[in-house]
Design goal:
Layout (H helix, E strand, L loop, with lengths): L9 E6 L3 H9 L4 E5 L9 H13 L8 E4 L8 H8 L6 E4 L5 H17 L9 E4 L4 H4 L11 E5 L3 H7 L13 H17 L2 E4 L8 H14 L3 E4 L4 H8 L4 H16 L5 E4 L2 E4 H13 L4
Parallel strand pairs: 1-2, 1-8, 2-3, 3-4, 4-5, 5-6, 6-7, 7-8
Antiparallel strand pairs: 9-10
Cofactor: Mg(2+)
Organism: Novosphingobium chloroacetimidivorans
Keywords: Lyase, Magnesium, Metal-binding
Length: about 290
């Protein structure tokens, strides 16, 4: 089954062992709620969290398309138990963390196929977002996901990567990401472009600093990212706004498309004192597609 790249701006994590936080996340305006069975749930709570997550998704059938689950990574003992518990509830999608490469996605695909068939779910219908930079090895394989089954988006992480490398910090003295982690951000973006899927930016841990969040979200959107992870409901409106083209942007994109339409077969066109060439047209068309006006 072919999946289109996903158009989702905000991806809000909610701990799978907290009914209250899952409910609050679902009541908000996040495009995707990422119910977490991995980092947000302590080892001793994982077994109790699984049926909670199943029951929560099952109790919200009308929201199911946006209720995704971050399972535990394939290099630990919890993945199959997570999937066996949550798949009967038909989650909207699965997030696979700490991958080492495409082979992890292919393994997950086989697990999901079996569980879909067992639960009367259309085979191949559960989409996947992959965390591609949380291991040093995974960094070398960010470009390998073209045609990978189920993958609709790639995202990246800086905390586990620092751990994987043995770094004591992933930040520069001024608080910005160190070179290796900016490289991870670039690799994720290029990997997503290569695979033809959506690039989603990593979290901003300081959820009180919404100005810094807005600045980062707007910057990475200019770079080509189409959405961002959130760890707190207050971050969601800021992210949604940052990744939604403004009316002025939409109007300009329409103008550029119209100029090219009026001059068919022309490679470059003079416009507002400058030159427009084909990449401008491609960018304008992308903006209009994003808002459903293509």
């Amino acid at each position: 089954m072919h999946h289109e790249p996903i158009a989702a701006r905000s991806w809000l994590f909610a701990p799978g062992d907290s009914e209250k936080k899952m409910t609050k996340a679902t009541e908000g305006e996040a495009d995707i709620v990422l119910i977490d069975l991995e980092d947000a749930v302590a080892l001793e709570s994982k077994a109790a969290a699984r049926p909670m997550v199943h029951d929560f998704i099952k109790a919200h059938p009308e929201q199911r398309h946006r209720l995704w689950v971050r399972i535990n990574p394939l290099d630990g003992p919890h993945t199959l138990a997570d999937l066996a518990a949550v798949m009967p509830a038909r989650p909207g999608g699965i997030m696979l963390p700490k991958v080492y490469g495409r082979q992890d996605v292919e393994t997950l695909d086989k697990y999901l196929e079996a569980l879909e068939v067992a639960n009367g779910i259309a085979q191949g219908s559960t989409p996947v977002i992959v965390l591609v930079t949380e291991t040093a090895e995974g960094m070398f394989h960010c470009g390998d996901y073209k045609g990978a089954p189920r993958v609709v988006a790639l995202t990246w992480g800086a905390e586990d990567l620092a751990d994987s490398i043995g770094a004591s910090s992933n930040r520069n003295p001024d608080g910005s990401y160190a070179f290796t982690y900016e490289l991870a951000r670039s690799f994720c973006l290029m990997g997503a472009a290569t695979a033809g899927v959506t690039a989603i930016e990593t979290i901003s841990a300081d959820f009180k600093d919404l100005d810094a969040l807005r600045e980062r979200a707007e910057k990475v959107r200019r770079d080509g990212y189409r959405g961002m992870m959130a760890i707190h409901p207050a971050q969601v409106p800021v992210i949604n706004a940052a990744f939604t083209p403004s009316e002025a942007e939409i109007a300009e994109a329409q103008e550029i498309v119209d100029v090219f339409a009026a001059n068919p077969g022309v490679g470059a066109i003079g416009w507002k004192g400058g030159m427009l060439d084909r990449p401008y047209l491609a960018r304008a068309e992308r903006v209009l597609r994003q808002v459903g006006r293509a």
